[in-house]
Amino acid sequence: MKVVLQHLTKIFPSRNKKEPNAEVVAVNDFNLEIPDGKLIGLLGPSGCGKSTTLFMISGLQAPTSGRIFFGEDDVTSLAPENRGIGLVFQNYALYPHMTVQQNILFPLQNLKGENRLSKEEMLTRANEAAKLVKIEEFMNRKPSELSGGQQQRVAIARALVKMPRVLLLDEPLSNLDARLRLQTREEIRRIQRDTQITTIFVTHDQEEAMSISDYIVVMKLGVIMQTGKPQRVYDDPANLFVAKFLGTPPINVFSGKVENGKLYIGDEAVLDVAGVEDQEVYVGIRPEGFILEKEGKFTCSVSGIDVMGRDVSVVSTNANSLNPVVRSIISADQIANTAGETVKFNLKPAKVYIFNKDTEDRVYFGDQIALHETIVAEMAAEGQVITPHEGPLPREADDKVEEDKPYETKKSVFAKVKGLFKKKSVPEAVETPETSSLETDNTDSEVNE
Amino acid sequence: MTEETNEVVVQDDSAKKKGRLTNFFREHAALIAWIPTAALCLLAVVLFLAPIGNVVKVGGDTLTGYGAIVGDWMEGLKTPVIVMIVIASVSVIAGVLGVVLKKHRNSLAFDIAAIATSFSAIATGAGQIIWLGSMSATQGVAYQPGAFSILAVVFGVLFLLVAVGETVVHTVWIADNNQRALWKTTWGKWKGWVYLLPALVLLGIFTVWPIINTFRISMLEDYSVLAAKNPNADPFAVNFNNFKNVVQYSGFWNCLLNTVLLTVITVPISTMLALIIAVALNSIKPLRRVFQTIFFLPYVTNTIAIGMVFMAMFQMIGYSPTTEPTSVGVINTIIEAFGGTKVNWVNESSSKFANMFVLCIYIIWNALPFKILVLLGGLQGVNKQYYDAAKVDGASRWRIFWRITVPLLSPMIAYVVITGFIGGFKEYNSVVGIFGTGDLMGPPGSFGKPLNTMVGYIYDRIANNQGRASAAALILFAIIFVVTMINLYVSKKKVHY
Questions:
Q1: Has residue A385 got a pLDDT over 80?
Q2: For B140-206, where are the alpha helices, taking DSSP H only?
């Protein structure tokens, strides 16, 4: 079932009567066409209106304006139970007093009139749904006797059992631990493939969205920033926000300028960007966009080397960086080049994005223009034309939401590695401060007897 | 190092980790312990000045409380008060010294605090006794000290022994670790019980003993206090005749029937209504607080007063002799306004059905507030997402109510029903409230207390036959016990915790 959202807007009125203008625009002129049978990830930081969008599609919240279509039917004013949706809540909302089977049967028992099934049919349907999510052996347990992942699957079974036209998942994985999350998201992907039900799920975890979605919709402050296939969005971010939101480790952002067809970060001309007008820009460089070379054009001072599993990344600093550190992922055999106070990089043009400093919109150059055009054409071919949002998009500076934590550096590991290569003993200097403070506490307290 | 000292060290470490506030209390525990002690000393003085609850016999008359000491109380007060204040001050100073002497400050300070408290208690009681003695001597009348003073002295001495014992252990035996450890283990085993003793004694006197006594009295045929006090009377026969007599008395069955009827009718109806009102209140936003207040008003109003209002509402004939006999009660006025004929609800020669009807309405109305409060509290604790989920699942309002709300509220409902049954079986004051005095227990002009309840029956017997009253109380207890057990058994199957 194709889902079309037209000019969907949700405004929460001000709670304080003294400030009638303090209303919150949770979703702002949202236009989206979701193709049939696809898995769509609504992605954005908390407070960006993604859950509100989902609840409007479900019918639990009424849009302030705009229309929602399932296929050709306008469902905007339909009650949730008449829309043919399945909704999985963030904390599953399984009825605690019913067994798994009763939970799954509940939606079927609510069917009325000609839709009403016989008891045997209900049981068959419930068993099918349970089989699909692999919980058939838990049918007689209460939700409290199940693990988080199993509860999650029961919730999905309950949503699927009435064969919804659209399946909606609200942060389905946020209550699970890391390992279970990986497993469950594959499970969701499999269930979606098996059932071919158009599925919309909401998440703030970009990795989660990118790994299982057919399309992702990146949102910010109630506005769609970009939609597309996950890898395409990652490769071709439309603006600074999208570039910063996608990717782990996050993109490195510098302030720079374009002059005479050259991109400057500080005083260094790091890249040829022929054809781009002179302007002040933000430069985003993906961590994998750095090439460590002795004669590199871009200089950073090394602060350490971080080994995270298979990745080796050079952590360095640059005066023009907007992030606290510049993080570049390099191949392991290049580690030797990092000896010394500074490192020099050359940049891969495909991994360097420049954004106008005022609008924070992308400025395309070189091969990127062709890539962008290909992607636009690709999207158009799949019917993914998105009516652009009228008026300026919210900029990074407008964002009141707390910034994500900077990518954490593990001091001890990185001090060790640095020490290895510099052949100096650094680790000894590292002391946990807690023990020392305990020592001082002991001095004034006297021993009892 | 003995094990004992090791243990102490371990405790110290754990205390250190707990943080500043804990450390503060630990460091200044002794000082803080003195706050209640000082308060107790003060209380001792106050208690002495106001011997509430003390019964004093002046000549042949019994005087109570302040009445006992009106007169030249100033004269009698002087010496004991001075003595007591001196003793209390000495103990306080001793305690403070214990704190100042830092060596074993925590334990020792507590010990001395305990000693001081004990002294205060002894001083209170002893002061009272001494004072009464001096009064007796000067006035030539025998004054008997009340139980209060004697208890104070007894507990004071007990605590003094405990505290002195511990102090000795802490100071004298401190040099010998082994002996101290031995003492500590033995003492440690019993210490808790000793400190618990006052509470246990009070519980025993005021809770356990009355219950045992009820059993005892119920076995003594036609026991009555007056007869028991009479040295010439025959001793009471020990048998089950009290129970037999109670059961054979026809009035008893009427009482039992009334009680059961009232309970069985009102509890389900009031629970149902409370549930509906609670759900309704929970689903509205504006005026919720106003309605909550209105529904809660009966709970904070006097039962008897409201009973009188109900009586007036259901009244048929006005009290005023100057007017024509006419319907003055609101209910009958309403009935007549709709073209009905007035009903004799509570007046002379009214039917029992009408009486019970009024009683039931009154009891239900009176029981609602508490139930609404409990159920509303439960409702507000129910996660709203269940309702969203049910809505998405296409459940109708009715189904949501029965399949979601009621099961999720079932613990509260069970609680309300069980307490409702217990309260229902103890119904009494509603009858008194509506039908006036406790002697009538029925409409005016009726005989034999037609609307009496179990508690009413017990109350009637208390005056002259405590044996039968106890037997009836035990029968009521057994009924409530069985009904509660049935309730619990049912709720075990139906309640989802």
A1: no
A2: 147-171, 177-203
Given A81, A96, A449, which is nearest B392 (Cβ)? A81
Dihedral sign for Cα B413, B416, B417, B419, please.
Answer: positive
Main-chain dihedrals φ then ψ at residue A33, nearest 5 degrees:
-120, 115
On whether the CB atoms of residues B472 and B256 are closer than 8 A, the answer is: no
For the domain bounded by A3-235, which CATH number is listed?
A: 3.40.50.300
Contacts of B496 in chain A (CB under 8 A): 96-97
Task: Residue B268: name the closest of B416, B410, B369, B398 by CA.
Answer: B416
Q: Is the CB of A93 less than 8 angstroms away from the CB of B385?
A: yes
Q: CA-CA distance, A124 to A146, in Å (whole number)? A: 22
Q: Do B389 and A89 touch (CB under 8 A)?
A: yes
CA dihedral of A282, A287, A291, A295, whole degrees rounded to 10: 50
**A81–chain B Cβ distance below 8 A for any pair:** yes
Query: For B243-494, which CATH superfamily applies?
Result: MetI-like (1.10.3720.10)
CA separation for the pair B307, B42 (Å, rounded): 45
Per-residue confidence (pLDDT) for residue B266, from 0 to 100: 95
Handedness of CA A211, A213, A214, A219 (dihedral sign): negative
- pLDDT band of residue B446 (cuts 50, 70, 90) is confident
Q: Is the pLDDT of residue B96 over 90?
A: no
d(CA A398, CA A414): 35
pLDDT > 70 fraction of chain B, expressed in percent and rounded: 63
Average pLDDT along chain A: 79
β pairing state of A24-34 and A39-43: unpaired
Handedness of CA A125, A130, A134, A135 (dihedral sign): negative
Chain-centre distance for alpha carbon A308:
21
Query: pLDDT higher for B48 or A200?
Result: A200
What's the rounded Cα separation, in Å, for the pair B346 and B359? 10
- What is Dmax (Cα atoms) for chain A? 85
Distance, in Å, from the CA atom of A362 to the CA atom of A353, rounded to the nearest integer, reads: 7
pLDDT digits (tens, 9 = 90+) for A302-349: 888 877 767 788 888 888 888 888 888 887 777 766 667 788 888 888
Domain boundaries, chain B: 17-175, 243-494
**A101 vs A90, A192, A230, B398, CA distance in Å?**
20, 21, 36, 21
- Those residues whose C-beta lies under 8 Å from the C-beta of residue B204, and which sit 6 or more positions away, are none
Q: How many other CB atoms sit within 10 Å of the CB of residue A367?
A: 10
Is residue A242 classed as helix, strand or coil in its secondary structure?
helix
Of A89, A97, A158, the CB nearest to B385: A89
Give Cα B11 to chain centroid, integer Å.
39
Report the 10 Å Cβ neighbour count for A67. Answer: 14
| A34 beta partners | A3
User: Measuring CA to CA, which residue among A126, A135, A133 is closest to residue A102?
Assistant: A126
Alpha helices in A392-432 (DSSP H): 411-422
In terms of phi and psi (left: phi > 0; alpha: psi -120 to 50; beta: otherwise), the region of B230 is beta
Residues in B closer than 8 angstroms to A86, CB to CB, are: 392
Chain centroid offset of residue A422 CA: 38
Which of the 8 DSSP states describes residue B382? S
The alpha carbon of residue B161 is apart from the nearest alpha carbon of chain A, in Å, by: 25
> Is the model's pLDDT at B27 over the cut of 80?
no
Which helix (H) or strand (E) segment is B79 a member of? helix B73-100
Please state the φ and ψ torsions of residue B368, each to the nearest 5 degrees.
-60, -50
Average pLDDT of the residues in B247-265: 91
Residue B12: is its pLDDT beyond 50?
no
The domain spans of chain A are 3-235, 249-362, 411-440
Write down the residue that tokens 């609850």 correspond to: B53
User: Does the predicted interface ipTM exceed a cut of 0.85?
Assistant: no
